[in-house]
Amino acid sequence: MTSSATPSSIELVAASSAFAQFLPKRFGVEFLTSLNHAIRTPMSGILGLSELLLESALDPEHREYIVSIRSCASALNDLLASTLDYASLASGGIRLEEQDFPLLTAIEAGLREARERALETGTVLDSELAPELDRIVCADALRLRDVVALMNRASIHSATSGRVRFQAQLSIWSPRLGELSLEVRREAVANAAGGAVLPRSYQEPEGLLVETFRIETLEMALLQRLVGLLRGSLKVSVEAHGSIDLRVILPIGLHELNLREELALVEDARPAILIADDNRINLRVLSAVLSRAGFEVVAVDSGAAAVAALGARCFDLVLMDILMPGLDGGAATARIRALPKCARIPILGITAGVTEELRESCRRNGMDAILGKPVNAPELVESVRFYLARSSN
User: Fold this and answer.
1) Which residues contact 185 (CB under 8 A, 6 or more apart)?
2) Tell me: the pLDDT tens digits for 214-245?
3) Domains along the chain?
């Protein structure tokens, strides 16, 4: 007879780990990468089109429908992304992608993701961001954004007071090195004696039964993996008055580059952006996001078409899907770099998941950075402006 016992939190995490260890034997990192891409590409389209619809004129009933669609799609994307990322990290399929970027932009992008969950649960998410964060750093922007989002989402899922507080500070140790401190605080459940009770996902779960799968358990397991990848530390503590602190410390490279004036010039201009993506829905979403941000946008559906477009006229920046049939993004980038006047044009790769070998190939071929899907509209716009400003120096 099959046992009806519900698995504990640690059994759920152990099962995920065992699954991740099994995958390389049967499928390998390539399978996870392919699955990642296959799932995140349509999810990017659903989320992107939902955002665009919410910016249009809708009656209250239709707006409520679209908000619900976006909410369900976001929750599904978070669950799938966390599961795939955890398995990929456990099998060695994810490595750091370090590049220059505005630190404050990445942190705010992670907070935006968490605030969507806060609104759905009626939780207030407060944030306090130190002025020192407004600078250029060298790190993995995507993984840093994920850490911020995961810290807050895991706390929001099981918050009991209706309020979660996030704080971020930057300590500067030398002109090229700093330490990023991220902290989330939430109120703990009080027991009959008035003491604090650590929420289940943070407890030592020996012998603890859970009634349902708890998404924050997976998020905490993924958070621990990501912090380790970023060479940081994760600490959970319960204070005497009952609050719970979740704290992450990350080493981070600093950049002396100051782009404030250049970014202001970019905002006043109307740069021309070339977008290449073989998925027509993603192409429409990317084009709409950048057009609404004030850029001139030309869209093509292949790597070969991108090379031809740059041979015919000048663009200020290229947004290139990496996985395309025929001439892929990396090969197209190599051909673009060989064109007259295209040696310094910023080329940003965009993908739902590629192998480390393909990422390295794209870098060798001249891509400046690789952005992830689903696309976060404000973060995409800020990334484009950042690389436009940097190329003007």
Assistant:
1) 164, 165, 167, 243, 244, 245, 246
2) 556 777 788 888 998 899 999 887 665 556 67
3) 9-90 (1.10.287.130), 99-254 (3.30.565.10), 260-391 (3.40.50.2300)
